[in-house]
Structure formats: structure tokens, C-alpha cells
Amino acid sequence: MRVLIVNTSERTGGAAIAANRLMHALNNNGTEARMLVRDRKTDAAEVVNIPQSWRLKANFLWERGVIWAANNLTKHNIFQVDIANCGTDITGMDAFYWADIIHLHWVNQGFLSLGDLDRIMASGKPVVVTLHDQWYFTGICHYSGICEKYKSQCEKCPMLKGQKMDLAKKVFDRKRTIYKDRNITFVGCSHWMAELARQSALTGGHTVTNVPNAIDTDVFTPMDKTAARKKFNLPEDMRLLLFGAQRITDKRKGFRFLVEACEHIAMHHPTLPGHLGVVVLGGDAESVKEALPLPVYTVNYLSNETDIAQLYNAADLFVTPSLQDNLPNTIVEAMSCGVPCVGFNVGGIPEMINHKQDGYVADYCDSIDFAQGISWCLNEARLPALSAAARTTALTTYSEAAVAQRYLEVYQGK
Q1: How many CA atoms lie within 13 A of 403 on its CB side?
Q2: What is the pTM of this model?
Q3: DSSP label of 228
Q4: How many CA atoms within 13 Å lie on the side-chain side of 300?
């Protein structure tokens, strides 16, 4: 069986990382897999990119321009939606002919158009779609928030300010036509995402299941904490929280709730503040440094997985106050390094963190409970057991072998 994994980028972004890891997991466990991308980052032999030309950038700019025009000429939420009005036909490429299974991941921002998706579905090759967000089963949004229009008919998307062009209805109706009577299996990375997909008017008649993202547990593994802290010039005599995101300022990542939780700790947990610091990982980490009431240590964006694993090992606790998320790679990575996690009870997070076994699941948007979770996990007598349990969870659920086997079952069901 030969599987072609299709994603906009090879390595940039959570979906790209997950798709790339799945390719390696399949190849390491007896299933031949390649990856087809628009944005190639390495010279890996198993990764193929589409022909490069000026049209790739033009596709991206044209799509953003149409959204901008429909959005009362504003940038409001302009990157929270995609209309897939232009892209590249991949069905004539050698890699497409080679594959028995076409496995689509995140293909937005000018990579594949709705017409391209239609051609892929019409090729007769079985198609698997991994849902890294909601876009495949909504009109145009990646995360719908409280909106549930996708259950019946997306129209007049609340993400956009203008309604002169009803992009949501146009795209939703086109997806309905593309998916009809086609051999598609939708795979949520979490039970939560799969359940949302099952409720969509677009997925009727199709199989919807769930398989988590894979991780290399030999790379993301417990290491010497002292050495890890020295590598990043972090204090060796403090408890350290780690928070990171590709865009820390993205409201969906919930940074303000971390600020509120730290303020609560500073006021109501007098034994912690003098011995507690926060490591902030991300390209814009410096911009939020002054917001936290605790000592802050910033680390710029890391691309090397060994470096990332070492940074996790430098921390005592990973905190993720995300307000809506599927199956964050960061939680899997931290747990695989034996680092307990604290997150809100939202999306796929409570499926990942076993409350008070390998971390703490706080009440949604409750910064006080989030602070309580931090304090509870950092208890000196409790932390070693939490760390061991986190590592065990990662090994049994997210290892390459476990995830590859589950996807093989999905492919064989086609």
C-alpha cells in the first residue's frame, strides 16, 4: 500500500508537523508513504513539492484579496477563514499516480482550490482527510467558536464583517457537491473534532473516525534537566512553567488567562512566586514579556526537534490556556518528555490530559482554577509521579507504532 500525504507545508505549523510525523511513522512501520507539499523545507527524498512559480504567491494574495473585499475592506479575521478559490492541480503529478491512497491534511492558503479537491475526489482513488481543524466540514472558518451553522447550512459567516458576498454559503454548497457520493473517510485528531464533524451537513454518508497525532518518543524523551537548563541559560534553582505557541498573541491561545493565573498565584500562593518563573517560547515572545507578574525567560522559535525536546525537559510543567484546540502537538510533546500539563476543559485537551493523573484539567476560562492546577501539579511530593504517568500516556497512545497501526486500519477499510 502506497500513501500520499498532502499538506501545504512540510514543517511549518502544527498540521505540517503532524503530517510529517505520520509519514515517518508509516514508513517506519511497514507502509510506504510520501509527502506532497507546496512549501518544502528539507531535501528529504520522500518529500515532493509542486512546481514552483510566481503563481503560488499570486494564489495566496488573490484569495486574501477576495476575503478582504468581502470583509468590508478590513483585515478582521482575514486569516481565520479560507475560501480555496485558487490552487494547483496535483492529479497529473507522478506522486499522485504512484499513490494507492490520497491522504489530505491542511491544504489551505492557496495550495489546493475547491476545484482541485473535486479533481482529487473524482480520480477514483480513495481519500482520507485528517481534520486538524474544522475547515473541511464548515463553510470557510477553521474554528467555528459558538457558531453551529455548519450543522445545516453555513451562510453569512459571523467571522466576516461584510455580507455583500456570502462566501460561506458559496463554499459550503460547493463542498456539499464535491463530497457527494465520493469515497472519503474523515479522521479527527481527537474524539472532540470527530464528533463535531459527524454533526456537519457535509459529512453525511461518510465515515468519520478519530486517530491521534503520532510522535517520535525516542526524540521526545526525558533528559537531564540541569543540562537542558544550562543549554537555554535558564535558572537551575526555580520551578519553571513553559508556554509556547506559533503566534502567542493569537487570542485563541488564551495567553491572557495565563497572565491572570500568574497574578492569582502571586497574590494567593505566597510560597510559589519567589521560586517560580515562566519560559515563553515563540517568535513574538518578547512582546508579551512585560505582561506576566513572574520572572519571564524568552526563547525564540525553535525548529529542531532535539532542541524542542530539551526545552520541554528544562520545564517542570507545560501550561496551555488555549480556548479552542483540537489535539495540540505541544501537549503530546511535553508528556512524552515526562512533563505534566495544565490546560482548560475544551476541545481535545481533556482527552489528552488525565485529570490529576498526569496533569490537571481546569474549568474552562477559569484562571483561578488554572492557577490551582499549576500549584497542585508543582507539589514536590506529587510531581515525580505525574511526570512518570505523562510519559506512560505518551508511549501507549501517541507512539509512532500505535498511530501507524490505527491509520493502517483506516486505509484498509477503504
Answers
A1: 30
A2: 0.87
A3: H
A4: 0
